[in-house]
Amino acid sequence: MNWAKIITLLAASVVAGAQTQPQQPPPQTARQAVLEILSGKSPDAVQRHIPEGTLEIFNKTSSGLAPSAITQISMVRSDLYRQGTHVETFEAGPLLLVSENTEGPHQTRYEVVVDRDDLSGDEDQMELSLRNYRDGVLQRMMVVPGLVLDLKEEKDVWRISELTATIHVPLSDPDYIRYVAEEMRKTQQRMAEYQALASLQAANAAEVLYQKKSSVYTCDLAALGKGWDAGMDMSGKPSYVFKISNCSSTSFNVVAEPAKDGPARRALCVDETGKTRFSSDGKGSTCISGGRSVDELETDDGSRIVGFRGAID
User: Fold this and answer.
1) Does pTM top 0.70 for this prediction?
2) Of the candidates 120, 147, 168, which is a domain's last residue?
């Protein structure tokens, strides 16, 4: 056997030995530990990253805190990975996790952002925040939630030693203040309209009872009893003014028009069929003549407050 064959044999042996030698996985990073908790792919994904001393105390007591915390995390994961949702995770870069889904006609996207990741030896502090997009447009939030994770390496496993929840409220940002004011106005409007819908349905029921007794519908509000039109705004003033018109033995119209200087903007109305409609101009006459069904109303984010045969945005 010549030297060339010997060298070839040795080289082949080294390659074969390397291929059969089990490869040791690289140690897990703190960021990978957080992703493991969120993904839940391991049966002990949560317990694995809790300090051993903490687990030992939990296991010796019947406080129920550990099972409760694990259940809450599992619920978050279930919502995060619900059917139809595309989830992508990142072990490096400014994003930790992205969740995309379709809600009705809208495309939603949630981003868990890594605002800061400070690694120092066997300790790491990670600051996370949330961004929400709808149809590609970043959505403002009344408060911006955040989370600070303090992790420490213990027996080659990164464990969460401290959790700090944060709330960011940028009061010096005029755009943010205008956004908050507009959201408060919308909330007051929704409350006023929802109360008005309830009142209209109550009035409709009262008219039906009155017609059964008198064979005719009434245009007298007092004849319908008290309490059904009790909707008030935050200052204690009526949000809507109610009127009844076009009364006969077969028909009637109850109208709710926005009160002056109140939070309401749209008129609402109901007739003998029980169908509730609205008009954006705030006029009861428009609602009666050409009002649209409240089923056509939806919120700015596409969700609906359903009730009383309709929805309010």
Assistant:
1) no
2) 168
